[in-house]
Amino acid sequence: MRTWGKWVSEIQEPRKKNQNWLGTFSTSKMAAWAHDVAALSIKGNSAILNFPKLVGSPPQPTSNLPQDVQATASKAASMVNFDKF
User: AP2/ERF domain: from which residue to which, for each copy (predicted)?
Assistant: First the structure.
């Protein structure tokens, strides 16, 4: 959590030093879900997830390019109703 109250999400691809920025979110659950979407697209079934029960529902990016993963993760985080969790 940043000092101004927003949550950020990043993911590191295997065997790479760079962190891929996924976005800034208003809740920790949104940031965690964005991370799950990115992890599934990058690591597949070996990804360690925050919400493993939602595995079948996240959208998939059109490619594994960082900008596609970021856009899909950010969009997915804004679409889920986290009140049920």
Answer: 1-52
Q: How far is 37 from 54, CA to CA, in rounded Å?
A: 10
pTM score, whole prediction: 0.83
pLDDT, tens digit, for every residue of 10-21?
Answer: 999 888 888 899
Question: Which of 84, 32, 8, 85 has its CA nearest to residue 40?
Answer: 32
CA distance 35 to 30: 9
User: Which residue is listed with tokens 């990043």?
Assistant: 10
Backbone region of residue 64 per phi and psi (left: phi > 0; alpha: psi in -120 to 50; beta: other values): alpha
At a CB cut-off of 8 Å and minimum separation 6, what does 8 contact? 2, 21, 22, 23, 24, 25, 31
In sequence order, the β-bridge partners of residue 26 are none
How far apart are alpha carbons 25 and 34 in whole angstroms? Answer: 9
